[in-house]
Design a protein that fits this description.
9 strands; binds adenosine-5'-triphosphate; 3-stranded antiparallel beta sheet; 24% strand; alpha/beta; 6-stranded mixed beta sheet; binds magnesium ion; 252 residues; Rossmann fold
Amino acid sequence: MSATINGTTQEARVAVNCKELTKTFGTGNAAVKALRGVNLEVRSGELLMLVGPSGCGKTTLISVIAGVLRRDEGDCKIFDQDYNRMSEDDTTEFRGVNIGFVFQAFNLIPSLTTAENVGTPLIINGMKPRAAVSKAREILVQVGFDERMMSSLPTDLSGGQQQRVAIARALVHQPRLIVCDEPTSALDGETGHKIMELLHTLGRGEGRALVVVTHDSRIYEFADRIAAMEDGRITQVVDSASQLKPMQKKTD
Ligand SMILES: Nc1ncnc2c1ncn2[C@@H]1O[C@H](COP(=O)(O)OP(=O)(O)OP(=O)(O)O)[C@@H](O)[C@H]1O
Ligand SMILES: [Mg+2]
């Protein structure tokens, strides 16, 4: 199984291919149709930004793409692989190797230090803890952390610092697909810019891709393409922010 799981089709020129994807939360009167038929392609090598008003389904969509949420209907292929054709164990293994996820709520482990948090994906993929923490420290230096901050617990860090830890953790194992949910929302303009430079440099490349959900127009310049989402559907995909047609609702 590992051959198919880890060795995703190398020549895949499409990183993500979603067709008529649907996802509904709840049932009956309480049902919320979060995804109503999403069609989206993320090309290998690109950074695609996903924008749209609060509640339009952005987090739901990237959660399905990252394999942390199962779709209801439609197709979703990640480097030609389909979570629905994998067992739970294989999905976990595939995600561990191929996906880096920066969650909107950071999801850091409170009992682990910064460096231990960042090293977790490497340990899950079989690296020895000492080597993992050492590798984690290297990437933490790149997001601007000093020795003291690396030994801190998440609760001792500011929101912006926690966000940088979450980003370092998503990058550390060099996944082929990185999905980020508002990676600059807790950062000042300068730090946000630096973080995007880092994501742009370390996350892109042949056979790799990033999907970045954002409300932050200051970082649009880092996008290769921008996909706009409204009410559970992708309504436009453009090459630059200047081509975005006004949305029905404001983006925030
Ligand atoms: N676990 C859940 N249970 C029930 N409803 C949910 C759940 N997650 C999301 N929803 C609903 O699905 C819709 C889409 O939510 P989602 O979080 O994907 O939006 P979003 O575009 O990421 O919004 P925001 O910009 O505020 O983060 C919303 O109406 C939301 O209330
Ligand atoms: Mg969201």
